[in-house]
Structure formats: structure tokens, C-alpha cells
Amino acid sequence: MAEAAKPTSAYAAAGVDIAAGERAVDLMKRHVARTARPELVADASGFAGLFRLDTSKYTAPVLATSTDGVGTKVLLAQRMDKHDTIGIDLVGMVVDDLVVSGAEPLFMTDYIATGAVVPEKIAEIVGGIAEGCAQAGCALIGGETAEHPGAMRPDEYDLAGAGTGVVEADAILGPGRVRDGDAVIAMASSGPHSNGYSLIRRVVDQTGLELSEEVPELGGVLGEVLLTPTRVYARDCIELAARVAVHAYAHITGGGLAANLERSLPEGLGAELDRSTWSPQPVFRFIAERGGISREDMEATFNMGVGMAALVAEEDAERALAVLAERGVPAWRAGTVRSGADGVRLSGEYA
Question: Any stretches that span the bilayer, and where are they (predicted)?
């Protein structure tokens, strides 16, 4: 006699697989465990992540928070069926905004929405988030995976995250600390990071390129190069600020180098940058040439090889470069803060 089929719940019939969600949680636990910090507090219910702030370490602690996503880069991850690094991008977008204020990232939470929960895929995504948190030194203390059948295709997903950090009130960095003559120290990006991907996808589609094809000038498969994860600067920036007189940081995201650096300058001060001090990665030239995109548009869209900038006292410029070199962060003197300068001006040609 044949075994009777297991009854399907009404919710599962509507497209939401609770069992798959539970399996995804089980699979991601080992990834999350990698990010543990001693301040974590166990919450048996699992409804919230708890974190004990050790106030004895601070005189006047100020909490900082940031939230972000990865934009349409996630669509390339889906087309490549590669999901293990997109979470690093998410963490980079969040924690490197936090560190601009001088805040140490403490913990993050994530949110993943998908058309259908495939436990192994969700675990890959969370594995990337955990790797990013490990690089940043922050804990991944909670998250949510939501199944949205009908609103998203089964193979679609999107993700977002929120992070919290802490900084001493008298150590908050920003425009108010910046002075005429400060050095602009540029830190290399790993590529486009998580910005400009709507334009990148249009270039790929309009030129008939295949993400799976080898591109000699890029030294690899196109899709894999475009999915190079965002460089996470948080720990490096915290260490740099502890050892030299950093006045401000600028996280170079959407809008490019000039627009983001300008946000970290006070009224009356501008910055003069010299393009000849660096050479953007080949991927930027590839996008510009294949898409017929002007330098002006490229610089207004992409980081062009600079993922983070530090404004430091002139006398600390060489020391700052030495600290970053010790930590394996490619960096260089890109320019100078000037009084009376009109915003951020780039001159010269890329090296």
C-alpha cells in the first residue's frame, strides 16, 4: 500500500515554505557564530539581538547608526548564480559609513527578501555578510529572511542591513575638524564597490557582452570581476585615527569622489586633487570605453579607484601612509585642502 502524501499547509500552498526558512536558519548559524563579540547577550527567544555596551570603556559614548543595501549589484549576483560575496558588499556599505564619524562598528542586523527560500542560497548570502562583519570586527546579532511569493520571482532576492557603532563625544570626526593645508589621503577601492551598477548592467547588455566570458584586459571572467566585493575599511580607519591626527573621512560611494569628499569639508574650504597620483583599475576604463561614457560621467558615478579618503594634518601625512601600508591598504597622497577653493577640483590625467 502506497504511503499517503504528506499534507501541504495552506501557507506552503500559497508559496511560503516555513520548513525551508527554518533550515536556512540552521545553515547560517555557523556563519553567524564567526562574528561573536564578548558583549553579546544570549536571547533564547531569538526575537531580538542583545548587546551589552561596556560603558566603563567610555567617558561620553555616542551611538552611531547607518543602514544601506547593495543596489542593483545584487542582480549580477543572481545572473551569475554567485551569492557568497554580495553580503560583504552590504557590510562595507554600512560599516564604512559608520566609521566616517570615527565610530567603531559594534553590530549589524540584516534583512533578506526573496521570492522563494532556498536554504543553501540564503546561507551563502549570510556567509558573505558574516565574512564582512568579521573583516569589520563587528557582530552579526540578528536578521530576518522574508519569503515574498508573487512579489518577487522564486530566484529573486534583495538585501539590506543596519549597523550600530560607538564613538567618544570628543572624538567625533567631521568637517568641523578639517583645516586649511590638511592632506587628502586616498585609499584604493577594489573596483566599483556597490555603486553605478545600473549603468554597468546597461553597458553589458547594450554591447552584447556575456558575464561568463573571459575578458583579457580585465584578467578574468567579466561577471566575476564585476562582483569583486567591496573593500571594508572600518578596522583600518579606526586604527589610523588612533595613531595619527585624522580630522575627517569620506566614504566614496554614489556620486563619486568629488561629491562625497565635499560632504566632509566645512564651508570656506575646498580640496585640490591630482589625478596623476593614481591609476583607476582596468574595470573603469573598460566600462568607459565599451559604454562610450565621458570622464565627467564616470567620475560622477563611480569611485574611480578611491574607496575612502582621510583628511589628516599635514605633519601626519607620511605617518598616515605608513600606518596604512602596515595594514596592507594601498594608499597615497592625492591632494590638499585649500581655503578659498571652490569645492573639490580634480586636475591632471590619470596615471
Answer: none
Task: Identify any residues that bridge with 250 across adjacent strands, giving them in sequence order.
Answer: 309
Q: Looking at domain 18-39+60-168, what is its CATH homologous superfamily?
A: PurM-like, N-terminal domain (3.30.1330.10)
DSSP string covering 114-182, please? ESS--HHHHHHHHHHHHHHHHHHT-EEEEEEEEE-BTTB-TT-EEEEEEEEEEEEGGG--SGGG--TT-
Local structure of residue 329 (DSSP, 8 states): -
Q: Are 168 and 205 in contact (CB under 8 A)?
A: no
Give the HSE-up count for residue 257: Cα atoms under 13 Å, Cβ half-sphere. Answer: 31
CATH entry, 175-347, from 1.25.40.390, 3.20.170.40, 3.90.650.10, 3.30.360.10 = 3.90.650.10
Residues 224, 80: contact at Cβ < 8 Å?
Answer: yes
Max Cα separation, the chain? 89
The residue written with cell numbers 542583545 in the block is 50
Q: How far apart are CA 101 and CA 95, in angstroms?
A: 11
Contact yes or no for 254/195 (Cβ under 8 A): yes
The yes-or-no answer to whether 18-39+60-168 and 175-347 have a common fold is: no
Q: List the chain domain ranges.
A: 18-39+60-168, 175-347
Q: Which tens digits make up the pLDDT trace of 335-347?
A: 999 998 789 999 9
For residues 44-78, one letter each, b for 16 or more C-beta atoms within 10 angstroms of the residue's C-beta and e for the rest, the string is: eeeeebebeeeeeeeeeebebebebbbbbbbebbb
The three cell numbers of residue 45 are 527567544
